[in-house]
Amino acid sequence: MSTAIDDELWSAIGDPTRRTMIDLLLSDGPGTATSLSRRLPVTRQAVSKHLAVLDRVGLIHAESAGRERHYQVDEAQLARAVAQLSAVGSTWDARLRRIKRIAEAIERTRTNNEGE
Amino acid sequence: MSTAIDDELWSAIGDPTRRTMIDLLLSDGPGTATSLSRRLPVTRQAVSKHLAVLDRVGLIHAESAGRERHYQVDEAQLARAVAQLSAVGSTWDARLRRIKRIAEAIERTRTNNEGE
DNA sequence: GCCCTCGCGCAACCTTTAGTTGCATGTTGC
DNA sequence: GCAACATGCAACTAAAGGTTGCGCGAGGGC
């Protein structure tokens, strides 16, 4: 139920390299494909493709400065993504708690009838 | 920083079909590849592969009953996964707040110096 | 007991995506 | 003007999600 139209956001942040890139952009501030690739175990071209993906879903946006292209996180969009994450998390959490409650109820019933 | 060894868990729940499958197993209780495929837009074989992935990372476990194979969610492992999710979420959230605070401080400085 | 059905697993194949290498283009600084 | 550097584009490989087709074992009528 929780996942529907926002699969794009999920698949964007689902990739480990892209998650690390977002981490880097948040902790070190705006960066380029080259600067990010120096801190990642992949080539600049791979980073460039990921930047394109993140840009397309709006999680980051670029600004050209001469021969460099500076990318930075779009705060509002990332906040939306985080909201999606915690939504799914809390949905599952709620269901787990419900299941546990039912299991305990059954356990109680079983224990009560054991003396028959 | 947040993502390291647990990339397996992430990639397991990163797939939209697998997320839906977990949803179904939680809401409808244990199910088979066939029963799940009836409620999903993919074939039984695709579902079967996803079940194998989820089984491998321990998010679900199977139980053979005659010719059927019943899968159900491993509550502890899913709880762990949910924890990972919210960990990343709150990390990003914290960084976003920090950035916002800094941005506001800069804005204040700029506004103060505007009268020069 | 026999057969028909159903659920499953295996194998071959297609498509997308993350990754690579190689090359051409545009900027900067001296 | 030229060397150095950041980028973009193209071709290729590898892995993953998906499909179809097949063969097999377990169950349920008759």
From TrEMBL, chains A, B:
<dbReference type="Pfam" id="PF12840">
    <property type="entry name" value="HTH_20"/>
</dbReference>
<dbReference type="InterPro" id="IPR036388">
    <property type="entry name" value="WH-like_DNA-bd_sf"/>
</dbReference>
<dbReference type="InterPro" id="IPR011991">
    <property type="entry name" value="ArsR-like_HTH"/>
</dbReference>
<feature type="domain" description="HTH arsR-type">
    <location>
        <begin position="1"/>
        <end position="93"/>
    </location>
</feature>
<dbReference type="InterPro" id="IPR036390">
    <property type="entry name" value="WH_DNA-bd_sf"/>
</dbReference>
<dbReference type="InterPro" id="IPR001845">
    <property type="entry name" value="HTH_ArsR_DNA-bd_dom"/>
</dbReference>
<protein>
    <submittedName>
        <fullName>Winged helix-turn-helix transcriptional regulator</fullName>
    </submittedName>
</protein>
